[in-house]
Amino acid sequence: MGASLPPKEANLFKLIVKSYESKQYKKGLKAADTILKKFPDHGETLSMKGLTLNCMDRKSEAYELVRLGLKNDLKSHVCWHVYGLLYRSDREYREAIKCYRNALRIDPDNIEILRDLSLLQFNEPCLGIKSDFLRKSKGAPPKDLEESIEMLKLKNAQNGSDDSMDGLGSIDAGGGKRRSTLMSCTFTQGHFSHYCFTSTIANAQMRDLTGFVETRQQLLSLKPNHRMNWIGFAVAHHLNSDGSKAVEILEAYEGTLDDDYPPDNERCEHGEMLLYKISLLEECGSLERAIEELHKKESKIVDKLSYKEQEVSLLVKLGRLEEGAELYKALLSINPDNYRYYEGLQKCVGLPAENGLSSSDIDQLDALYKSLGHLYTWSSAVKRIPLDFLQGEKFLVAAENYIRPLLTKGVPSLFSDLSPLYDHPGKQSSTLALIQADILEKLILELEHSLRISGGYPGRAEKEPPSTLMWTLFFLAQHYDRRGQYDVALGKIDEAIEHTPTVIDLYSVKSRILKHAGDLAAAATLADEARCMDLADRYINSECVKRMLQADQVALADKTAVLFTKDGDQHNNLHDMQCMWYELASGESYFRQGDLGRALKKFLEVEKHYADITEDQFDFHSYCLRKMTLRAYVAMLKFQDRLHAHAYFHEAAAGAIRCYIKLIDSPSKSMVEEEEEMSKLPPSQRKKMRQKQKKAEARAKKEAEVRNEESSASSVSRLGKRHVKPVDPDPNGEKLLQVEDPLLEATKYLKLLQKHSPDSLETHLLSFEVNMRKKKILLALQAVKQLLRLNAENPDSHRCLVYHLYYAIILLTSVFVFDISCGLILIRFFHKVGTMTAPVTDTEKLVWSVLEAERPFISQLHEKNLTEANKNFFEKHKGSLMHRAAVAEMLSVLEPNKKPEAIKLIEDSTNNPAPINGALGPVKEWKLKDCIAVHKLLGVVLDDPDAALRWKGHCAQYFPCSTYFEGERSSVIRNSVNSQIAKKPENGDSSHPEGGKIVDFVSSNGKLEALKDLTI
After folding, report:
1. Residue 864: pLDDT above 70?
2. What's the CATH fold of domain 1-107?
3. Domain boundaries in the chain?
4. 28, 273, 642, 746: which has the fewest Cβ within 10 Å?
5. How many other C-beta atoms can be found within 10 angstroms of the C-beta atom of residue 586?
């Protein structure tokens, strides 16, 4: 141990620890080398030197030294602790836990080791490891609770409350000092109460709630004069679903305070604790007691807004709606733009928004909001909310009163504000028989006409500023874009640009319209034009990057994105900022282009962000208990439990699974296979191929050197110090593709989706795809049953379209893809099973018996063969293009000789008008992406190039701006450089291959010169 060294060397050892904590690593190494000259086999010094080297990114040396130190001193808790820290830094949590437990066998009361162990246990899912040091109590209050209370009163009277948390922090595995010192870990004996404290964090992190309660109980018994122990014990019971016991503990703690009141410097913390206690009473159903307690403690609660919100919540639950309504009005006087207050007020008057409203209910709500509008004339919410429930003429009047001032002011977000009204096409007025979007269209057209004729609004003599007409055209362009009338939308936005060509928002909206119309190259050009109008606008820059990635112009997008990053390693900077939308869009673009390595790398980077977010919660366990932010703390724990249900994680995990599926369907060639193919070529072609490979390698090497030089030159700080980051050993994700079993990797992410997104259709579609490839028949059946659970009776066309949007890309690569409904997946599943050989082994017979037992319970197949089920599905959905395409595909699978009939099913589809009576004509039902998917189905799956060509010409008339269908109004490329941009990838949108010459066409002012000649 360090203490066994002579005094001089012992002081040097302390210096190593101090240098490690202060991140003075060179100084620590020098001290370690001095000790090792005299004592080369001193285990703890070797371990500390290794830990220091680990912080200097010399990991191989670090592990070697730490293992050598442990070998020389197996009975040193310091050596085991350092070994655990090393594993912790590499996120090898299970190995780190083993090391910490070995250290605790030597020094069971060491607080720092226990703290580090607790943090890892919190991060790791429950490992089934029980602490040998925990007493096996059943979560009951300590027997000496009254004695503890008296002791705390005595301590408070003598010394004041002891709320210090010094010495109870954690050691940063990267070498930082958070709230403690490694010195205390090495040279002081902790107390058992310290162990209890750190164990509570462990149990909370593992969600081992029973152990959490036990540990908190022990900690309170050992140190009852510590406020945090009382609060932690209460929180433990709350998390363990025993809110009533938590309330008892908090009240017992209140009884220990002098005059039931804390010191002045703790008023905020005490008020938070009281609000937490009242929320517990509400959660337990003790509503009368909760509101009584709230009124009793009003003077002690500092946060008056939270007090009022808690009070009104209790009043509503108690049915005291009149009092609740008055209190909601008081809250509205504080913040009249809070939508939650309006929702609560509606509940109090008996007209909740979630219930269907009769005409009399609508009249009552209209009167209510008119009265509120007189009180809060400056509030936008009081004018906007009635648009969600008013109909007919009342809706028209309210919409006009709301829209006119905003058009005059020139509010660009007006359409975004009103866009939720377009999500309810079935909501009609009883008198005008028009939906809200139609009313809005007619209203804005009337305003436009009046502004053109008289320069003012209808019925008003005052003239409007010229910009009002421009913003009216701006709104109309977005309106027609939303309804799929892209020609009209482009006409309106072009007129607005001609009116005022200096407004950036006009170009951004035109870019969005072109994207929806199918011309992604032109959309990227417009977005770049908008960006160049204000090079300091980060939002516009991000919009431009998004358009470029959608057009598969990844090189240009990278050049544009890094304009707003720090100097140095700019792409790492984007990763450090957790810019997940960029990584996801890049991954999708790489996936469309077939670059699975880079796509997978981007998706896994997003997954790493969520691992970092999980780790970031470590510091809050003790902090929140100390600062008494208990309501926020519990909310944070609940948020962490559903963290992986976030949309970005779902998208990243699904993208990674699709990459692995594509990898298993189209495995990359090995070096040996490439050499064999090369040897079969004639000598002249072989020589050309070799030269091309050498040039490509030289170009890649040169680009890497240039990037490294730029990074190195810009990474020198003003103090002259160079901040060097480790070079990415796999920038293109090639190593990620070299997995032995891609389906095994896909299964890891699939399990996360099944756990955290069980109600997502895509989760079970991916499960079906993976398990069919793994030949896990019962697991595939389980996925089918989940799909039937989610959407069995009446799969609507909209949800089917959404499903197809996820899967159109991998249509070209998988036999078991493009099933746009649960029923068709079922058909494909049982068709696959039906073509298998007869069962031979006991396992096969068991699987077969399960399938036969399940089949009668599936209504889609009840007393029908697969062909009949397919016909039945067609009869149900013959009006939907995507359903017809799916039926055609199933027909070709079930009866290959009927492929011409399957193709005819698709070609007989009619593009019917959508049930929207627009003022400028009907909107067609077919969507661009659906038509692209059908074209790929005809050309690839059904393998009929002539039918695909006919379909392409047919769709070119419906989508004249589409570059995929080569519509007559799509962008025209004028030179050979720009022709690279127009190359169609898998998704049919324009792209640019990574590493092309276009990367160099960026002038000093940020303008993308390569796009300047693109005709739109």
Report:
1. no
2. 1.25.40
3. 1-107, 320-389, 790-943
4. 642
5. 25
